[in-house]
Amino acid sequence: MKKHSFEYFLNHIPKDEVSRAQSFVGDSIGIFQPKNYLFDVKVIPEEYQAVLLHGNTPAVKIGKKEYFCRKGSFLFIEPGMEVMVPRVENPPAGNFTTLLVKKELFEIISLEFTDRETLKHNGIMNQFSWYFKDAIERYKCELLNYGHSHPMMIHSLSIQIVCQLFRDMQVKTPQLFQKPGDESALIKKAIEYMHDLHNCSITLNEICGMLYISPSHFQRVFKYHTGISPYQYLIDIRIKRAKEMLSKNNHSLSEVASLCGFINQAHFSAVFKQRCGVSPSSYKKSIFNACAGWNN
């Protein structure tokens, strides 16, 4: 562990717990993965802090407010806020990651994201993203494999972690959606993504991850611009493509289902009939009969 970094935080933790915890410390970022929760220990961090919760966790008290956390979410804590985990019966094992960010780095990046040095936002955030977790893992790997041999690399990874923290906190930059056309450009990009990958198992989180936007906000914006949900829009793309393939009579129903991104033929048939009023086989037959009639 690098000396003289995050001393105030470490001094509030028993030395035996510090020695058992995994620690990855640079000049601006400290990552700690303890084995146990510290109950009834009051800590007032001097740095910005995010706690990623990987499993069941007891309540956490920040200031005078108690937060009941869920697996996969994270807590954001400002400097100077008192933090404590009240003691509980049958406590779970520690399964969390504590991220500490020095004020200097946090405030530089905050200026870019918000035009303000400080950010008032204590409490539970949404689910932390794969991108946030991956940025932390890459920082840990750098220190494990190379130590502090490449300071610029460590600084670069530190910036990426804090930027992703802001994105996971859904902090809007002053430029984001500032112009009326900005949302349209975002929706256009999402629609292009759906068209390109309609035959794959696309999830809402994948689309939002690609756009760096929260699922709830994306769904609201998408429906405002298109009148339907992203899922309904994707289904419409798949149904349209399925009709094109059925009209050519070159594929079986199971092949059409697979090539258009449906789970299986049964799923394809159910959705097609719900949307079109007839089954895929009946639609295919009607197209074939119509063509035969024209030829006669």
Describe it for me?
- Strand 4 and strand 5 form a beta hairpin.
- The longest helix has 19 residues.
- 50% of the residues lie in helices and 13% in strands.
- About 3% of the residues have low confidence.
- The strands form two sheets. It has a six-stranded antiparallel sheet.
- The protein is α+β, with helices and mostly antiparallel strands.
- 23% of the residues are buried.
- The radius of gyration is 26 Å and the shape is elongated.
- It has two domains: 162 residues, Regulatory protein AraC (Jelly Rolls); 119 residues, Homeodomain-like (Arc Repressor Mutant, subunit A).
Jot down its keywords:
Arc Repressor Mutant, subunit A, Jelly Rolls, three-stranded antiparallel sheet, six-stranded antiparallel sheet, 2 domains, single chain, alpha+beta, 296 residues
Condensed summary:
The chain is built from twelve helices and nine strands. It has helices at residues 7-11, 15-20, 103-114, 130-146, 151-168, 180-196, 204-211, 215-226, 230-248, 253-259, 265-276, 280-295, and strands spanning 22-25, 29-33, 48-53, 60-62, 65-67, 73-77, 83-84, 96-101, 123-127.
What's the structural blueprint in terms of helices and strands?
Elements: H1 7-11, H2 15-20, E1 22-25, E2 29-33, E3 48-53, E4 60-62, E5 65-67, E6 73-77, E7 83-84, E8 96-101, H3 103-114, E9 123-127, H4 130-146, H5 151-168, H6 180-196, H7 204-211, H8 215-226, H9 230-248, H10 253-259, H11 265-276, H12 280-295
Antiparallel strand pairs: 1-2, 2-8, 3-6, 3-8, 4-5, 4-7, 6-9
Helix pairs in contact: 3-5, 4-5, 10-11
